[in-house]
Amino acid sequence: MTLPEHAARRAWHAAINPLHATIYFSPDLSAEFAALGVADRTTAALASRAAAMGAVGAGTVTATFYNYRHDFVARHLPAVWDTLTPAQAVAARLRAADRTLRRLLGDEAVASPAMAEAADLAMRATEGCSRHARTLYAAHADLPVPDEAHLRLWHATTLLREHRGDGHLAALLQAGLDPLEALVSHTATGRGMTPKWVKAIRGWEQSDLDGAAARLRERGLLDADGELTAEGRAVRARLEDATDRLDAGPYEHLGAAGLARLAELGGGFVAQAVAAGAFPADAFGKA
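and the corresponding structure tokens:
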């Protein structure tokens, strides 16, 4: 059955990616890594996502994460692997996901039939993913699937997130948007990360963002006020359409009814997590 137009994209943005992304703003992640001797929050965040690939260095992370400043990454990796192993980092991340979801959603929701149903649907969608040319997805797909429903759901959203993300990088290269131009143009849509958090989490300076904005203006994609022009909006629209095509497999495999149900259940959990303070109020938008 053909999926409704943009249904997979809407479900990903509203019900899949945000559930996975709760980990990146969670104090539980920092606490788990601090207990292993990694006190720096940025080091913990980078290591937690990279660990599925093994004891990789800054070059691999810069390539696969795409929009981080390389010398910023190099301050943290590969040195972190002198303190803990990738296996320890993977386990710490899963413990943090457990603590985070229980804190945001409550034990009743974690143990609910709706959680188990959502986990089953999301895992079924991952059966339609493909490993080829998808480094982060393939690395995480080799990790064992957790037993508990809320962690199976989080694991599945991680796989779906990285699968779409790997394809998105190919689309960004095709669109001719470098890492900074991708960030600045996404922020200009009103849905991306704010400059404050781009600088804090990705390691860029204001001068870097200003340079990217200037390049986008030269290409006619951004106006003098930092808003996307008509051509800028068209480029972002083509970018998302290309990403959708590269990410169609999981959702076509799940089917329209399954996707709608996953969006309903996952969206409910995301709304609950957001209401519980999963994300800083100033993390997304143009401010």
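(Above: one complete record from the training split.) The mean pLDDT is 96.
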